[in-house]
Amino acid sequence: MSALLRPLRWWDVEELVALEQVLFGADTWTAPTWWAELAQPNRWYTCVQLPERAGEIAGYAGAAVNGAQADVMTIAVAPWAQCRGLGRQLLDALVAAVAERGASELLLEVRADNTAAQRLYARAGFERIAVRRGYYQSGGAQGPPSADAWVMRLRPVRRPVSGPSVPGPSVPGPSVSGLSVPGASIP
Fold first, then answer.
1. SS3 56
2. Share of the chain above pLDDT 90, in %
3. Per-residue pLDDT at 166 exceeds 50
4. Nearest in space to 46 (alpha carbons), one of 100, 118, 122
């Protein structure tokens, strides 16, 4: 499998909203939310595509970097592309991107009932530091009407040894200089 990482762009928004509907149901980011995220200067967003799906977005990830602290805004893999290592590839790209931007710690929230994502993050060195009760108000497609979130932290942030090259803006026009992660759905 030859996966391609590239920056998210404004022309990806329609496809992202449709994929979000499948992954997150009622918790879907809207087109205006994506536009606002992609316009933020402290954000970094990337996506992964698989050649066998004709360039369709298989997953995406994003982060906000504010000085020494970075936050995962979103990370998700399409149901048809799960269990192929794409979640780890996206996470490694995200970690590398925030490290290159000077972050020394990376925080995220993950549903307390999403054990697959929790395992992924733990294998990458994240540790659980807190619980946010009732953080996810509508269960969307992934769970019950209300769910707690685990707050997890990676500290210190170091570029993964075998991590992918981090895509940066390469096409003129509106670009994404950050990553985004609602609910962190990575089976």
1. coil
2. 70
3. no
4. 100
Residue in 55, 8, 6 with CA at minimum distance from that of residue 29: 8
| Residues 94, 115: Cα–Cα separation, whole Å | 20
Looking at residue 179, its pLDDT comes to 35
Could you tell me the domains of the chain?
Answer: 4-154 (3.40.630.30)
Residue 110 zone, left/alpha/beta (φ > 0; ψ -120 to 50; rest) = beta
**CB under 8 Å to 62, separation ≥6 — which residues?**
8, 37, 43, 44, 45, 46, 72, 73, 74, 75, 94, 176, 178, 179, 180, 181
3-state secondary structure 112-134: CCCHHHHHHHHHCCCEEEEEEEE
What sign for the dihedral angle of Cα 111, 12, 38, 159? Answer: positive
Looking at residue 185, the DSSP 8-state letter turns out to be: B
Reported as a single tens digit per residue, the pLDDT across 21-50 is 999 887 789 999 999 999 999 999 999 999
User: What is the sign of the dihedral through the CA atoms of 6, 10, 16 and 20?
Assistant: positive
Q: Which residues pair with 75 in a beta bridge?
A: 61
Please tell me whether the overall predicted TM-score, pTM, comes out greater than 0.85 for this model: no
Cα Dmax for the chain: 42
